[in-house]
Design brief:
The complex is a heterodimer of chains A (358) and B (263). Chain A has 358 residues and is mainly α. Chain A is built from 14 helices and four strands. Chain A has a two-stranded antiparallel sheet. The chains are: A mainly alpha (358), B alpha/beta (263). At the A-B interface, helix 1, helix 7, helix 8 and helix 9 of A face helix 2, helix 3, helix 4 and helix 5 of B.
Chain lengths: 358, 263
């Protein structure tokens, strides 16, 4: 009932090919954007903006990047954090070495350098698939961190290994408050998500999915294997690179190799799997679930303590949270192996009829 | 069988093609030709090399010997991308659709070679990308109408029954507007009604778009009814070639299918 599209007639193919062909989706998206751009910065407190929402958005962008490569084009990758590191360090170097570098330009340079690295480490995908490819991308993860640690140029010969990210400003406005950083992140993520959505519903996206679903048939209908796979690596790494730059500049405030270890690659991979491989929405749901849920659990355990009037040891609480979190991930994967995005899809189909059974 | 359409010049000729996998000779010096606008069948017992022949024609396999001449150009072997560009489309014996995509997206993907705009234009959804998308949508909808699959255009292909999936695969092949269509057992596993539908579609494609058709099929009734000429393969060799009536009477063909009495 809520989601019924009865009465929404489409009389041209142009209408049928809109990003959100259903009215309810358009309204929902508009409301969401207004909340994200206006209400959240106005009412959100510093902690939420800088410690939760900004990293959520950045990780959602990285997940989106991985989703383009793994979810859409079917090339398993464990090098996400490496591509993010390239983005972060090259954005830092762009700011450092090029005078009057605008911050968005530095993000773009970070992204492009990551794309170039992605292209090189995408070459093995022409010969190997699946888990073997994942191992090849794992090499990228180790190589990039090694290079950043060893080659002084990347960190401007800093002795500590932890560099403070440069001040950001756009057209003279300093980006130094949590709200400003949040808005910058949100704008970049919104634009890039829109671009990804467009890309995935047009020929490039179709070619990616064709390679993922049936590569022999794809090459027989004229999809060039090499170009398509390398393009998927480049675009995906671009997204990861920009995410990495924003991770350093908008969230951490520092540029350091320690932030981009293999652990981060796995976290992003989990986000993609839980959110739903091959779905833009899924990238956001997955990132949201993994970043927000531990906080929710934390709040829940606190209120439980208050309600029962007991005090539990800190270690017990945090371990229990980890156990519940892990159990929930397994639960979700059993209930819906295709991720939260699929659950949402099924929910929408149900809502077309609900509350009337027929 | 005469349907009153002109059969033209030689479109494709295969000469002395051999293909071996290790010690197994899948094809052994096979030669035949296909005229423009004809329906050409390749038949033979299991393992005769029929599918291998199709795979050679569109560059999935590379023959060890022999040449392929298509529209006057001669090739040692085909490369599948190049074959697609030359206008050779095909369907597969085991359906090879893109399972995660809808029918519409599958058929749209069939037109990928006709897309001119770059991925940047697509990402920004600029004028040309949008215009092309609409143009191709029109062409694709025409094919969808032609094959009568309008009602399932937004359904993911994984949810469709087998017979419809076969039809969607035909639609995807047609979307490329091929000169020559290779069909690998288009009617395998279908019931009588589905077979009749498929026959009708194949003949309609042949008439309406003028597409030359090369098909592999096991159902002899179908082969004899719709094809103009038939090649018979057995153990990688060509044993007969001619009109359905000629082939049916050929002693070697009868032997290949029924076996020879060993006294």
């Amino acid at each position: 009932m809520l989601y019924r599209e009865a009465g929404q007639f489409k009389s041209t193919y142009a209408q049928d090919q809109q990003i959100f062909p259903i009215l309810q989706d358009r309204i929902g998206m508009a409301v969401l954007l207004v909340i994200a751009f206006v209400a959240v910065p106005l009412f959100g407190d510093q902690y939420w903006l800088s410690a939760i929402l900004t990293p959520f958005l950045v990780l959602a962008l990285a997940t989106l990047g991985l989703n383009i490569l793994t979810g859409y084009a079917g090339q398993l990758s464990l090098g996400t954090a490496a591509f993010m590191a390239v983005g972060a360090f090259m954005a830092y170097n762009a700011m450092l070495r090029i005078p009057h570098m605008p911050i968005l330009g530095a993000f773009a340079i970070g992204g492009l350098c990551a794309a170039a690295v992605g292209l090189v480490f995408g070459l093995p995908s022409l010969r190997i698939k699946g888990l073997y490819l994942a191992v090849a991308t794992l090499a990228c993860q180790f190589f990039v961190l090694w290079a950043i640690n060893r080659i002084g140029w990347f960190s401007n010969h800093s002795s500590s290994g932890v560099i403070t990210a440069q001040r950001m400003e756009i057209l003279g406005y300093p980006i130094d408050t949590p709200a400003a950083k949040y808005l910058l992140t949100l704008s970049v993520v919104a634009v890039m998500a829109l671009a990804a959505k467009n890309l995935m519903r047009s020929e490039t996206g179709h070619a990616f999915m064709a390679v993922r679903d049936m590569d022999v048939a794809a090459s027989v209908i004229g999809i060039p294997m090499m170009k398509t796979k390398l393009l998927a690596f480049a675009i995906s790494s671009f997204y990861c690179g920009v995410a990495g730059a924003m991770y350093a500049f908008c969230y951490l405030g520092t540029v350091e190799p320690e932030a981009f270890v293999l652990d981060l690659s796995f976290r992003v991979l989990f986000m993609m799997i839980i959110g739903g491989a091959g779905s833009i929405l899924g990238s956001f749901l997955g990132a949201g679930f993994i970043t927000l849920f531990p906080i929710f659990l934390n709040l829940a355990s606190k209120s439980l303590e208050n309600a029962l009037g007991i005090e539990l040891s800190h270690a017990l609480v945090s371990n229990t949270e980890a156990v519940i979190f892990g159990a929930l991930i397994i639960f979700f994967l059993i209930v819906e192996p295709y991720g939260l995005a699929r659950l949402w899809q099924i929910g929408k189909e149900k809502l077309r009829l609900w509350p009337f059974p027929h | 069988m005469d349907r009153g359409r002109p059969v033209g010049e030689v479109l494709l000729s295969v000469e002395g093609v051999s293909l071996a996998f290790g010690g197994v000779k899948a094809l052994n010096g096979v030669s035949f030709d296909v005229y423009q606008h004809e329906v050409r069948a390749i038949i033979g017992p299991n393992g005769a090399g029929k599918s291998s022949m199709l795979n050679v024609l569109n560059g999935v396999y590379h023959p060890n010997q022999g040449t392929i001449r298509f529209r006057g150009e001669e090739f040692r072997d085909m490369d599948s991308h190049h074959a697609a560009k030359l206008g050779i489309a095909r369907t597969f014996q085991n359906i090879a659709l893109f399972k995660g995509m809808t029918v519409l997206d599958n058929v749209m993907t069939g037109r990928n070679l006709k897309i001119r705009c770059t991925f940047l234009e697509q990402a920004l959804w600029l004028g040309r990308a949008r215009r092309e998308e609409l143009e191709h949508r029109h062409a694709v909808e025409e094919i969808i109408d032609f094959l009568e699959i309008q009602h399932i255009r937004k359904t993911p292909v994984g949810r469709l029954p087998y017979g419809l999936q076969k039809r969607v695969e035909l639609a995807r092949a047609l979307a490329a507007e091929p000169v020559m269509l290779l069909l690998d057992e288009p009617m395998a596993g279908m019931n009588l009604e589905e077979k009749q539908d498929m026959c009708r579609f194949i003949l309609d494609v042949n008439d309406h778009y003028g597409t030359t058709i090369v098909l592999i099929e096991h159902d002899m009734g179908v082969v004899m009814d719709i094809s103009d000429r038939v090649v018979v393969l057995d153990y990688g060799r060509k044993i007969a070639d001619g009109t359905p009536t000629e082939v049916r009477g050929d002693q070697k063909v009868i032997d290949a299918y029924l076996g020879v009495a060993h006294a």
